[in-house]
What does this fold into?
Amino acid sequence: MMRARIFSVCVAAVFVFLGLNLFNMQVIQGRRYRDMSNKNCIRLIPQAGMRGSILDRNGVVLVGSVLSYDVVVLPQESARVEQILAFLSSITGTGLPQLRKNYRKNYSSPSMPVPVIRDVDRQTAAKLEEMKLDIDSLIVQQTPVRSYPHGSLASHVLGYLNEIDHWRLTKLQDYGYKTRDIVGFGGVEEKYDYYLRQEDGGLSVEVDHRGRFTRVLGFRPPLKGKDVQVTLDWRIQKIAEDALAGFKGAVVIMDPFSGEVIACASAPDFDPSVFVKRNYSAMGPLFNDPNAPLMNRAITGTYPPGSVFKMVGAAAGLESGKISSSTTHYCPGSLTVGSREFKCWNTHGNMDLIQAIAQSCDVFFYKTGLAVGGQMIHDYALRFGMGRPTGIELPYESAGNVPNPFWKRVYKFQRWYDGDTANFVIGQGELLTSPLQLCRFTAVFANGGSLVTPYIIKAIDGRDVSAAHRKVSPVNLRRSTIERIREGMRQVVSGDAGTARALAALRVSVAGKTGTAQTSGDKTHAWFSGFFPYEQPRYCICVFLERGGSGGTASVVARQIIESMIQEGVL
Amino acid sequence: MKTEIKIPAIAMTISLVGIVTIYSSTYMKQGEFWQSMYQRQILWVALGLAAYAVFSRINYRRIWDWTYVIYALVIVLLLLVVGSGIVRLGAQRWLRIAWFNLQPSELAKFAVLIYMGRYCSKKSADDVGLKAHRYGIIRGLLIPFFFVAIPAAFIVEQPDLGSGALVFFLFLLMLYLGNIRLRYLALVVGILVAAMPVAWHFLHGYQRDRILVFLNPNIDPLGAGYTIIQSKIAIGSGGFFGKGWLAGTQSQLFFLPEAHTDFIFAAFTEQWGFVGGALLLLLYYLLIRQGINIAQTTGDHYGRLLSMGISLMLAIQICINLAMNMGLAPVVGIPLPLMSYGGSSVIITYICLGMMANINRTRAVF
It folds into this structure.
């Protein structure tokens, strides 16, 4: 019976093998199969939560959420679906072929509700809700949708919402973000997405093999995201944006003592609601427009500051003792530095510091700059917060650039000539600053010598967090230095030959400095950076017009803004 | 424990487990037909036990005399199935006799078994030795092949490829056990391998699908691969202790098709886990082991062949069914003996066990 014995061994071996395989499936791989089994019979019906609102400093909603009503159908036999769609068509007036197309397009699995019509109006939603008794597989789902009550107001600061992209997903995956999540892009929406983000809830239901509902397993209510309050005042923001209409550029208005940003406008702007409506024909041009409407020029854009920078040279000269309040230089209309002739924009004659600031005399500052040296001007520029991000809580802030001899050697492989110093001290050449940096720089003279850190977040979820952001550090300048330059800034507006006389007629006393920066094109950048009222400053303002002409144009825009602020009674 | 107690005890335990599992797989379904299914299975098991009692008392040597009668009966029944069988599940496998849906292919396995047992244990007139190992190719291969091929062809025609292949496999097995020359067996196996590509053309579309799907169940997760995937999920998700009786989501929510027949093992292990599955495997092994033990201690060639043949027939069915449940074999319609719902299968299995018990009881005579 040799042959029989072989079989008995074979049978034993096969049983052992089957037993081991059973062990492998149930114990070693059990968890994986358990997950698959749960996936089989557990369906999640998501319920979207509401994203937190963004409020202005007085609690006015800048960005909120409203409920949109979507009509969804539970999948079932095709004849029944056809019947339901026909019924829907008769109630809503949407064509039956369109509904069929939507149903087919949005169908994902036999147990997932299929959205058929998005965003029906309230009356229709109510009507359909009444019909629910007869047709239990028809659901009116409430979905919160981002709403922008002020349209494109402060669109750069607030940002917009869009489907998460690959780059963000790789960064945020560990924090529970998933593909197709809607996240903030740019501004507060992006930076504070973690707080604003709602927690979606849902219903988990058990279904059988045909996807028919058997019982509810659990329910998690959706949670609303936290509200974020910003320091912006929507009225002033609106004034600033209206004044910018027709220009490219930016306006920053800031509290000079605390660093609270009261208004931050950038033009051209965009309508964030096109992203919510998934309006592709309007979204595409936003990304491809050469005017870069999505860029926040106030913090991301960096430009040569022009004559506004002369106050750095003045501070360096006064502090180092190279000039004093009684120093005068004669302006013949140009100055030869090395072998090149550096022009002044006018022939000013004898100038002291205050007159030189008021009339923005280039020759005076060429001479001051050459006396102080390029390196020291660079050092003072850094002390005034240029060349590095200000630390505002908005994404994509630029550092700008402040050149010095070492930098030039390393990056340009060139020596630093006196001509470079002359160019540097009047804010031309390689020097780049953002409007926010210049506003902060001006604040030093408004508040009497402190460098503030601009901030824009006032409170999160009702808790005041401004104390955490407020950071004021002394620049360590002599009292007299500040005083002299302040006087000069006042003379810019009130002096007979001041460059911003346009502001002289206002009911408040304004001080500031204009700037006209040469660009690669034929038109110059226009700047005005100042503060008001002169005696007890409440606001710092920086107006920047990209290729907007001379500094005078910028001061006209600043006048418009301040005038409107007086009219609106917010000053 | 004595063998004559062990065999019915193990068989009844398995049957009981089967009834409990059938209840769990059908109690959620609508309709009297499903709701009363476990009760019918109780009836079949009771009838099976009665058949066991009868056959364990009929001397198995009498079967020798009835061999060709049974064989003829099977052929007639198979002809009837082909001729006037009722259509169910796209296949004609049942024959309605009064209130009983007889499945002649179950009976055919049994008939082939006793026929081969008798054929291979013929003794020569001059000496008492067996003749089988001295048979030439005609007597040793062609004649028994002819006798087996007729019922096998009918079964394949039904179409029930699984049972047909099983009958053919039993034939080879009995030849081997009957000491037929190995070279004949090698010849048959060789022809079989050579014929496979040709056979592929004659397979039905769904049969080809089953084989392709076995090789890769994911090619058609909602069609032919569905059963394999769901069965594997059911078994795997049971884990070590199982989900508990009536708490199996795969079988009770009907993700698992045929949870009361071919895939009853998956339904069982989903609810009882590795603990239950391993115990069940052990019970089956012990049952098979009884037959092998009896074969090894029986002097009579016919009895030995029958006992071994019955054990191996059970073993093959069990192993193929379990392998198919675990996704290790293609889905062929072979039920799990004693557990799967089905009167024919239950009763024939008990008859076979009864004969085994009788061989054990009467072997002392030889």
